[in-house]
Design a protein that fits this description.
There is one protein chain. The protein has a five-stranded antiparallel beta sheet. A hairpin with a 3-residue loop joins strand 1 and strand 2. It has one domain: HIT-like (HIT family, subunit A, 2-Layer Sandwich). The chain contains three helices and five strands; from the N terminus they run αβββαββα. The protein is of the alpha+beta class. The longest helix is centred in the middle third of the chain and has 21 residues. Helix 2 crosses helix 3.
C-alpha cells in the first residue's frame, strides 16, 4: 500500500484541496512553490499509462479543475504540470504554480509552516468548482 493510499484512507494526514469518488488532491508537503499540489486517483495504480482510458481522462479533468482553483488563489504566470511517478508507486500529477522554468525543476523547495499549509489548502479548496 502506497503512502498516497494511506492518505486517501485517512491513515496519514494531508492538506486536502478536493476529492470526489475517484480522485483526491492535496498539497505537496515538500513543495517546489507555494500551492504545489498532487492529484491522484484513489485507486492505487503504479503508472500513468496503466490507467484505463476513462480513469486517465477523469484524472486529467479533475487536475484541470484543481489547476484552475490554484490559479485563482496563488499569483503566478501559469500552472505547470508534471507526471514523473518514480518517487511513489501511485499515479500522481504535480500541479505547480510557476513564474520561471526553475520552479518546475524539483530542486528549489518552498518552506511553509503548518498554519500556512492549512490556510493555503482552505483558500485553494474554496476556489475549486
Amino acid at each position: 500500500m502506497s503512502i498516497f493510499t494511506k492518505i486517501v484512507l485517512g491513515e496519514i494526514p494531508s492538506y486536502k484541496i478536493a476529492e470526489d469518488q475517484h480522485y483526491f488532491a492535496f498539497l505537496d508537503i515538500n513543495p517546489n512553490a507555494k500551492g504545489h499540489t498532487l492529484v491522484i486517483p484513489k485507486k492505487e495504480v503504479n503508472k500513468l499509462f496503466d490507467l484505463d482510458k476513462a480513469a486517465y481522462t477523469g484524472l486529467m479533468d479533475f487536475s484541470y479543475r484543481v489547476a484552475k482553483a490554484i490559479e485563482k488563489t496563488v499569483p503566478c504566470k501559469r500552472i505547470g504540470m508534471s507526471v514523473i511517478g518514480l518517487e511513489v508507486p501511485h499515479v500522481h500529477v504535480h500541479l505547480i504554480p510557476i513564474n520561471i522554468m526553475e520552479d518546475m525543476r524539483f530542486m528549489k523547495k518552498e518552506q511553509l509552516n503548518e498554519q500556512e499549509f492549512t490556510e493555503l489548502a482552505s483558500a485553494i479548496s474554496s476556489n475549486f468548482i
